[in-house]
Amino acid sequence: MSTSTNQRINGTRLWSTLMAMAEIGATPKGGVKRLTLTEVDKAGRQRFTEWCEALGLKVRVDAIGNMFARRDGRDPTRKPVLLGSHLDSQPTGGKFDGALGVIAGLEVMRTLNDLGITTEAPIELVNWTDEEGSRFGHSLMGSGVWAGVYTQDKVYGLKDLDGVTVGEALDSIGYKGEHPAKPFPADAYFELHIEQGPFLEREGKQIGIVTGAQAQVWYDAVITGQDAHAGTTPPSTRKDALVAAARVIAKVDEMMRARGDDGRGTVGRLQVFPNSCNVVPGEVRFSIEFRHPDGAEIEGIAKSFPAEVKALVEESGCSLELKELFVIAAQPFDKECVDLVRQAAARLGYPAREIISGAGHDAVYVARLIPTAMIFTPCKDGLSHNEAESILPEEAEVGCQVLFEAVVARANR
Ligand code: HGY
Ligand code: MN
Ligand code: MN
Ligand code: MN
């Protein structure tokens, strides 16, 4: 039984639930701060659990805090179709990055209940732990452990800037679940997400048929120079770690621009020590990340960048420790699942276009194990990882309707 287009999700309910989630960690500038594994994240998780259990979904939590809310199907031997995203946010995040995919998944479950539909295969709604990576420095953490990219022990030991480990944080909010954080048999995964870029809005498209995601490499850098008196230390004897870092930052920007419109190079986090006005900084710790749709570009950077940047830092009389945190290969999504998204958008008459994701998503790691596809909706001015992130209620509704059609078609095939 495939879904006919008269089975409509409830856009008003979807929007009010999105706004209810946005109240958890709401910031004065209209965004959210739901940093992973904090009390605010816990509040979002608890609200999510209440909503799922009110629908009769069975919620389980794995050892890394990933949450799975299961709706049984007619045939218990069928592998579940997964859908979802993440509820954690950036420190100055928007209301919709991640939350749209989780709350739209909830709306799919609510609509199936309203219509009294039991799909052939079970369906599981997922809230992945720490997609953003902004607290512990590893993005796609929960899906990465589930997909076997990271070991649970390695992730438990990751520390935030206050020295709190992931393991401690999971314990502190009571979300170190008893289920093993590893893959279980699943049929497919669908993730609805805002595009976080300008192309759908610019071209007047309502749906992005996401065919894959670009490659990335992330580094942690520590430059060591020498603390010195700002007034008495002449240029010839300075070992200024911040000047050396500035040269590295300029090089990252130059490497990005050398790759044209597809180039991406960012230093997003930087700490200066001792961070005192009249001390030449002796140490700087910062993040570096590069991305590109062509995996070979990232492989090239990963090969050549460490030696080039080491020489640059040494010219400033400082030393560099550069730690490659991870490389994410360019990830194509599953053709059959992508076609389900394409057919749903066409059936519903929504203008759509194929697109490669510039952002990383949990779907990137999940796609390594099971057939996966993503659905994008436009967002205003392509802005995200910014409190001003915004979408229209009808954009959320259109994305959710396509998600509903694709998931139900897959679960009933
Ligand atoms: O960085 C990313 O792409 C993700 O949105 N955290
Ligand atoms: Mn996201
Ligand atoms: Mn994000
Ligand atoms: Mn993301």
From TrEMBL:
The keyword Hydrolase applies. GO terms for molecular function: hydrolase activity. CDD domains: M20_bAS (cd03884). The keyword Disulfide bond does not apply. Keywords: Hydrolase. Residues 216-312 form the Peptidase M20 dimerisation domain. InterPro entries: Amidase_Cbmase, Bact_exopeptidase_dim_dom, Peptidase_M20, Peptidase_M20_dimer. Belongs to the peptidase M20 family. This is Zn-dependent hydrolase. The lineage of its organism: Bacteria, Pseudomonadati, Pseudomonadota, Alphaproteobacteria, Acetobacterales.
